[in-house]
Amino acid sequence: MIVVEDLHRHFGGFRAVDGASLEIKAGSITGLIGPNGAGKTTLFNVIAGRLSPTSGRVKMAGEDITGLPPHELFGKGLLRTFQIAHEFGSMTVRENLMMVPANQTGESLWNACFRRGAVAAEERRIREKADEVLEFLTITHLADQRAANISGGQKKLLELGRTMMVDAKMVFLDEVGAGVNRTLLNTIGDAIVRLNKERGYTFCVIEHDMDFIARICNPVICMAEGKVLAQGTVDEVKNNEKVIEAYLGTGLKNKVKEAAHG
């Protein structure tokens, strides 16, 4: 689905992404882990068109999408969410979802004035889609609440719901667990797995919660200092000496050694 080839993104002398190469296979839920400052979010931003690469290439389904702007990638079914949710706080949860589909008939002044029937019919279809998404995510009870008033975890679910309004193909999730309680995180995890299995979504997930990563992700890629350090199953990555040194810490390293000699 996504192939990244020798990708670089430099900020002056700082190499946030420094020759990263990786593949996100269609139909997978790929975990992306690594210490703070490893370049994970910068990598997401380059792939999703929010930043231009210094060099390197990004392909989606064989097509070179390097440097394409977010709205063009959106049209191709590539979306990303953010560590801090970006909701329209004064609008309801349902209205936030209904805002997502592009090129709605009612956006044209002519159509709004002279094609009211077509505008109303489309709005009904979009509303029905939004209600279906709310039901899928088990947040129907929030439909008429202002988005500013729902919890951080519910906002993360709302962001996931936005991707469902356009039937995304490739979704990049940036720290879905940040500030989310365990119950809601399980709900988010369940929704990601269902979207993957039932609707064919491909995901790449940045997350520091290793239990969450272990539960839903295969394979897992670890980055450090802008480079790909290791990739494989959760267990393979967790037991990789380089990963332990760079990310998981000497405490885990000692535990691994104790278990091996146990």
Automatic annotation (TrEMBL):
Gene Ontology molecular functions: ATP binding; ATP hydrolysis activity
UniProt-listed InterPro entries: AAA+_ATPase (IPR003593), ABC_AA/LPS_Transport (IPR051120), ABC_transporter-like_ATP-bd (IPR003439), ABC_transporter-like_CS (IPR017871), BCA_ABC_TP_C (IPR032823), P-loop_NTPase (IPR027417)
PANTHER family, A to Z: CONSERVED COMPONENT OF ABC TRANSPORTER FOR NATURAL AMINO ACIDS, CONSERVED COMPONENT OF ABC TRANSPORTER FOR NATURAL AMINO ACIDS-RELATED
GO CC, any one term: plasma membrane
Chain ranges of the ABC transporter domain: 2-250
Keyword ATP-binding: yes
Cited Pfam families: ABC_tran, BCA_ABC_TP_C
Taxonomy, superkingdom: Bacteria
Keywords on record: ATP-binding, Nucleotide-binding, Transport
Gene3D superfamilies assigned to the protein according to its UniProt record, in alphabetical order: P-loop containing nucleotide triphosphate hydrolases (3.40.50.300)
The species this protein was found in: Cypionkella aquatica
Designated name of the protein: ABC transporter ATP-binding protein
Entry keyword RNA-binding: no
